[in-house]
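I'd like us to work through together how a protein chain folds, taking it slowly. To get us started, please write out a protein record for me. Go ahead whenever you are ready, and we will take it from there:
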Amino acid sequence: MQDPTQSNEGKHGAESAHKKQKTTQAPPPAQTQTEQERTATMASNAADFELKGKHVNVAMLTAGGLAPCLSSSICHLAKHWIKSYRAGEISGLTIRFYKDGYRGLLIGDSFVVPEAEWPTMDALDLIGGSPIGNSRVKLTNVKNCIERGYVKEGSTPLEVASQTLLTDKVSVLHTIGGDDTNTQAAVLSKYLLDEHNGKVTVVGMPKTIDNDVIPIKQTFGADTAARQGALFFSNIVSESSANPRMLILHECMGRDSGFLTARTAYYYRESLQKKEFASPLFPSHRQSRDVHAIWIPEVKLDLMAEGARLKKLMDTYGCVNVFFGEGTGVEEIVRDMESKGEEVPRDAFGHVKLDKVNPGSYFSKRLAEVVGAEKTIVQKSGYFARSAAANEFDRELIGNCADEAVRSAIRGVSGCMGEDEEKEGNPIRPIEFERIKGGKAFNVEQEWFQKMVKEIGQV
């Protein structure tokens, strides 16, 4: 199989890059006055909050869902801060952690790691999950924060969070999370700047196994999760031999992006090609264990047409294996629920709770009938994949971003670290928080993906 690049150049990034290509030699347009003022203000703010030669109180939190990068991010951030301290770039260092994400920031639940314990944080590089705990909290959802007991009636979560940071004398806050975590960091950063003269530099780290953050080329944990999902299915696929006419639906995480589903399928098929099988006389073989369909939000799904195609494979192999992203068909399911007057469960951010809507159950009932399955199972690799420790690829990416994150923080520059795919060369830099958005679509035109769907007969 062709080895694709590790990147997911989403549609937004590709369109942006295309717009920047010029066919003439005309000079770039002059900045507007507003842009000039904004640039000057940012430079002035950075200079005001530069930390070189000062004692730095660093705080970190992890938020949102798990990803194979949270522990490793803490390890590498701590390592580079300690390196800067040892090199004399800063005069002193305190490392604090807020427990359970923004919840800990709101209720003031944190701890400081004493210098004697700093070396123990190296072990976090190879541990999954979050060593300090996560939560899903939206600072701007005042009602939800009050209902959950994180702030008192009449309080403003942004002000409570700001006061915690000021009380703890935090110089730099590292928010390790996905688009929701970092858009909340953007709101908090702006609030601190407007209401408290920007006394805390906020530098985010982009984790999400969906790889769907604009304009970041590759988010932390996505590659590890895809490889872990492939490992998960390499065992589950044996269930295809457990019953005649077996239908296996492998559900991968990915609310808006099909990156994880596609990449998991790619890595699984890559491993399948390396396996040896017995004589073709045996009914369980490479073809029966292959991926037979890949359904993702970016590709329109005609369930009846796909069902007809897959029924032929069921008749031939006695089983069908479908990889699908959890966000596939959600709009259709939501419309169906709303038309029946059913309440659509949503989280604090307004996202549909996919575990409650259950796309896997929806598809399994309909597809099983079309392909004539005798038995159907839906297997979700999400929790298995997202709880793994970061692999070598992700650890290297995290390390490079952590290095620049610390440099940025010392300069007094806030932003979300990552490979900025809207800048030439995809440099690792503190991306302006106002540019951070979720929902980046997976680019289905990538050569490796097109080759794969053609090989399995989907196109």
Summary: The radius of gyration is 24 Å.
